[in-house]
Each structure stands twice: as C-alpha cells, then as structure tokens.
Write a structure and sequence with these properties.
Layout lengths: L1 E12 L2 E11 L11 E7 L4 E9 L2 E6 L5
Antiparallel strand pairs: 1-2, 2-3, 3-4, 4-5
Length: about 70
C-alpha cells in the first residue's frame, strides 16, 4: 500500500472544528481493493487522532466520526 496525503483542510465534527490532513490508501499494483472499497481518513496532527473515517464499498458506505475523547 501507499498512502496519499493532502494538505490540511478545515473539517467540522461533533467535537468542533479541526485542521486535519486527508489521507487515503492505494494499492501499489494499481488494482482496486476488494468490493471496490475506498477509505478516506481525516487525521488531526495536533491531537494525533483520526477525526473522520469514510468507507465506500460497492454495496454502501459508512461514515465514522469521533464524538468523544476519554
């Protein structure tokens, strides 16, 4: 796998607004992931935590948002 990283962007979560980097994996061989899967992660470098994870598959999608830090 190789990971692509975009510059920081401002995102809104239930915890508030954050500056986050957008990261997504790609296969080195260029083939698609199983079930046409794609994942995008918005990661806060200051807090060192993932804030949002978006998974897309051929049969649906899933959005995970951080709502609490213990």
């Amino acid at each position: 796998l190789k990971f692509n990283v975009n510059n920081q962007e401002r995102i809104k979560t239930p915890l508030g607004n954050f500056q986050a980097k957008k990261i997504w994996p790609e296969r080195i061989d260029g083939e698609p992931f199983k079930n046409a899967g794609k994942m995008t992660i918005w990661y806060s470098e200051t807090e060192k935590i993932p804030l949002i994870i978006n998974l897309k598959l051929k049969f649906g999608s899933l959005n995970l948002e951080l709502i609490e830090i213990n």
